[in-house]
Amino acid sequence: MNATITIWSKHMTKFFRNREELGGLLLQPILWVVLFGVGMGALVRDVGGSDYLSFMLPGVLALTALGGAVGGGMALLDERLRGILKEYLAAPIPRLSILLGNAASTVTKALFQAAIILIVGALMGARITANPLGWLALVILLALFTIGFAGIALAFAARSKSIMGYHGLIFLFNLPLLFASNALYPLVNMPGWIKMIALANPTTYLIDALRGLTFGGTATIALPISFAVTALFATLGMALALVSFQRTIR
């Protein structure tokens, strides 16, 4: 546990000291809220009983979590390429603590960024409920979702041989998953074949649950199902990272 906390602390210190990383990870979702959300809101007044900015804000949170997961994998890959990972492996610490430290810092960054996005969204007029249980559910769901994608990113980072190769692989799980979900349009209005793809996408369950719990919308998927799918996704993602990491260090 001490090793996990130490690695987490190291990554968080580096994150807050690196203004380029901090600004880069925040700029894209803020632009989504300010430009796309407000612009589309002028054209689409009502979506599923909610204004469009409130409707799309959960999707921006998912995009933020995806970006944070990619950054977490990039941190592990950078340490691999620079030889720092070998120092971790030589230390008398559990191998699992290396992955847990990376995953914990990724989740912390995602929750920090989510808070910024929510503040910007509220300032732009998004409808955000004052339900404490909804806020708690948002934190839990977003953390689980980030852990799942952090696991996938860490699995790629453990096997990739270059930064370009890593970004080429991880791109397949970034924006395509966002657009193949209910982030920008209602699930009930999708054509049948797109709806099937969206229902196989864990991003859909996170976004749908957040809309119903925190943003005054109506959940189209039962909340227990959304929680179960998101938790299962987190478990499978970290299991994939552990298997990939163990094969790499043999």
Short description:
The protein is mainly alpha-helical and 250 residues long. Helix content is 78%, strand content 0%. The mean pLDDT is 80.
Number of helices: 11
Q: Compute the gyration radius: what is it?
A: 18 Å
Oligomer: single chain
What's the helix-strand series?
A: HHHHHHHHHHH
Number of strands: 0
Q: What do the pLDDT scores average to?
A: 80
Any low-confidence stretches, pLDDT <50, length ≥5? none
Reported for the largest beta sheet, the result is: none
Query: What would you call the structural class?
Result: mainly alpha
Distance between the termini: 23 Å
The fraction of residues assigned to DSSP E strands is under 5%
Report helical residue fraction.
over 70%
Shape: globular
> How many domains make up the 3D coordinates?
1
Task: Detail the topology: elements first, then pairings.
Elements: H1 2-17, H2 19-43, H3 52-81, H4 84-90, H5 95-123, H6 132-159, H7 163-170, H8 175-179, H9 192-199, H10 202-214, H11 223-248
Can you walk me through this structure?
Helix 2 (19-43) packs across helix 5 (95-123), helix 5 (95-123) crosses helix 6 and helix 6 runs antiparallel to helix 10 (202-214). This protein has helices spanning 2-17, 19-43, 52-81, 84-90, 95-123, 132-159, 163-170, 175-179, 192-199, 202-214, 223-248. It has one domain. It has 250 residues and is an all-alpha fold. It is built from eleven helices and no strands. The mean pLDDT is 80. Belongs to the ABC-2 integral membrane protein family. The chain crosses the membrane at residues 21-43, 55-77, 98-123, 135-157, 169-188, 221-245. One of its GO terms (cellular component) is ATP-binding cassette (ABC) transporter complex.
